[in-house]
Amino acid sequence: MIQFKILKKSKKSRARLGLLKTNHGLVETPCLVPVATQAVIKTLESREVAESKSQILIANTFHLHLKPGEEIIAKAGGLHRFMNWPKPLMTDSGGFQIFSLGFGKDFGMGKILKKENSDKIGHGQQPKLLRIRHDGVFFRSFLDGREIFLGPKESIKIQQKLGADIIFAFDECTSPIADRGYTEKSLARTHRWAEICLKEKNSRQALFGIVQGGRYKNLRIESAKFIGSLDFDGFGIGGEFGNDKKTMLQMLNSVVKELPEQKPRHLLGIGHLTDIPKIIAKGMDLFDCIVPTHYARRGIAFTSAGRLNLAKSKFLKDKNPLDKKCSCSVCRNYRKNYLCHLLRAKEITGLKLLTFHNLYFFNTLLEEIRQKIKQGKI
Asked: Half-sphere exposure of residue 170, counting CA atoms within 13 Å on the CB side?
């Protein structure tokens, strides 16, 4: 189980400083949760991830179920031992894959629309590659084409075998073009699944319920009230939030008011640099995001001078450190010209170095934000 203690509340916003205690150590919040989809932060060893000041990771239930399978991980001693990660771990439920492998894939979109879209998903509509039912979802494996069923019971059983400190209830992440009728039916299903997850769990792991409701304010409030009334150890806030980040922040305001204050809140899948101070000011304690690692593997470094595309040839003549204000091992030991060379030569080490730096940079920003909350500046 977990224990969560609020150390300080801001007088300027809903930001708060907290301490999350798990069987695998403490997490200072607010905190970034890097995404270790397949029990790994791509390009890094677990030791290096810890050295980047990462406190807790989140792995993916659906992908680990496909390969290598939860039975293999359980026989290896659980996820912590399997990936040699001594610190806290989360696993998601597989609910996001209902969107990403379903309507997200069908329409080529993410959770937040980048441009106006006239398409609509109505009640009863099904994705091309999935079958969503009242008791769960039939997926088609992208590895061998076999059909896989995942519902609340199956998700909890898999997550218990994986053995993370914190697990999530199975839910449906809806598409940003789902209409009200579809979203209402989906939300009722997610709420029913949440109750089943609570009944099915028989481990000492902490279980977080997930608030859904899409872009519809009254549905978000309804979901927060319902999920908040159940005996969860913490709460995730998931799904899509409308066409822009301003709408998302307004939605977070409405949701947070309805959730029990003493329990931790986790925002699922949001965490660009510009988002971080804003979502923390709205009361988020934890948030997972692929941005620092995903961008690193595409040659992008986050620095105090802004975002840099190190693959551009102009950096071949730049003898300066990646970021003079950063104390990470990459900035201390390597120069932009070398990093640029590695990326242009398609050397894996370039991706590794940028991944480490970006994680360190994001985690340092979180340290600074925690300090500002402590000082009453946020």
From this structure: 30
Q: Which of 92, 165, 171, 285 is catalytic?
A: 92
**190 within 8 A of 152, measured Cβ to Cβ:** no
- Whether 92 is catalytic is yes
Bridge partners (DSSP) listed for residue 178: 121
Q: Which of 165, 275, 285, 288 is catalytic?
A: 288
Give the distance from CA 289 to its chain's centroid. 5
Strand order in the sheet with 57-59: 31-34, 286-289, 265-267, 234-237, 206-211, 166-168, 89-91, 57-59
pLDDT in tens, 72-103: 999 999 999 999 999 999 999 999 999 999 89
Tell me if 18 sits within 8 A of 264, measured CB to CB. Answer: yes
Residue 275 catalytic?
Answer: no
**Distances in whole angstroms, Cα of residue 42 to Cα of each of 36, 80, 119, 212, 218:** 7, 17, 35, 29, 39
Buried b (16+ CB within 10 A) or exposed e, 289-300: bebbbebbbebb
- Residue range 299-317, pLDDT digits in tens: 999 999 999 999 999 999 9
Catalogue all structural domains in the chain, each as residue range(s) with its CATH number: 3-289 (3.20.20.105), 304-362 (no CATH)
pTM recorded for the entire structure: 0.96
Q: What is the pLDDT of residue 116?
A: 67
